[in-house]
Amino acid sequence: MASTSTTSVSELLRAWRTRRHLSQLQLATRANVSTRHLSYLETGRSKPTRNMLERLARHLEVPLRERNQLMLAAGLAPAYPERGLNAPELMAVSSALQSIMDAHMPFPALLLDHWWDVIDRNAATDFLLRGCAAHLIDPPINALRLTLHPDGLAPRIINLGQWRTHLLSQVQSRSERDGDPRLHDLVAELASYPGDDVGHPVLTDVVIPLELKVGDAKLRFFSVSATVESAIDITIDELRVEAFYPADDPTRDAILAMK
Questions:
Q1: Where is the HTH cro/C1-type domain positioned along the sequence (predicted)?
Q2: What are the residue ranges spanned by the domains of the chain?
């Protein structure tokens, strides 16, 4: 979203409602406020209270980071803290996320932030990084850049066009949903990498697999994401574990043989 230094709270509210493709009547009905009051808030004729902003943000599914922007634009103190992952208050959650990745061994798992930057990973991801250029695996690592860059995993991804289309769709959707300029720039960067063929799904597949060459082996994975749905800290709200599972028995056997 635009900087709160130049954007009023009324403009931000209107922008979020438009982004969610809601009319004033639809949002007012969901939030149990009058359309007149909502109209006054969007034109700046009324100043929203903290409770009203929270109510509207909840029904607009505004991320916690952007909810703080709404508060600041309204002249209110931010409502949601952003602590470091090692902060004492976050230790229970960060330990739980770490335990998920450790328990997923010997299969790869990553802890990612809102922009697909790798915050942590388990040891099973080491084989994924073999042969990747140093400039892609030196921290901070971006999982999407590492995957689709021609100096990264891309040359070893058998169904590159199909997987590339899947990832681009994910980041494009999040960019449009959140209005995040950093995600917008990431979409443009990823789209500039080679790989146009979307490929054709195999009829027996139920998910889009990541098909990867590792030595003489052809490995097939699908991924499952886990998030903390009840987060009220920005850091936790923006984290997720991406766990990769074998999509077939030969992949499972090959991974177990690498132990």
A1: 13-67
A2: 9-73, 88-258
Query: For residue 131, what are the CA distances in angstroms to 142, 153, 155, 213, 216?
Result: 16, 8, 10, 11, 14
DSSP 165-220: HHHHHHHHHHHHHHT-HHHHHHHHHHHTSS--------TT-SS--EEEEETTEEEE
Q: Angle at Cα 242 formed by Cα 219 and Cα 164, nearest 5°?
A: 60
Structure tokens belonging to residue 218:
């052809």
Largest CA-CA distance found in the chain, in angstroms, rounded: 67
Which three-class secondary structure state does DSSP give residue 48?
A: coil
For 88-258, CATH number?
Answer: 3.30.450.180
Q: Is the CATH number 1.10.260.40 carried by domain 9-73? A: yes
Range 82-99 average pLDDT: 96
Task: Please report the pLDDT score of residue 4 as a whole number.
Answer: 45
